[in-house]
Amino acid sequence: MKTPHSSTRSPQVLYVFFHGPWGFAVHETTQVITALTPVCPGHQYRWGDGHGLQGMPAGNYALADEGAIAGQPNWISQVPEQTQITNMPPRFALPRALDDPRVHCSVTLPFTSLLGYPCVPRSIPHQNDDYDNLLSGRHFSLLNQTTAGDDVSLGLAQVLPYVINDFSRLRLVSDTGFQWLPLPTDSGAVKLHIYAQTTGASSEDHFSTMASLFNLDLHLDGIDVTQNGQVHADPSACFATGQPPITADDLKSLEERNAPPSARPHSRTLKFPIACGGTIVINYDPQAMLAPPDQTAASAPAPMPGMGNM
Question: Which of 83, 128, 196, 257 could in theory staple to 20 by disulfide, Cβ–Cβ 3.0 to 4.6 A?
Answer without folding.
Answer: 196
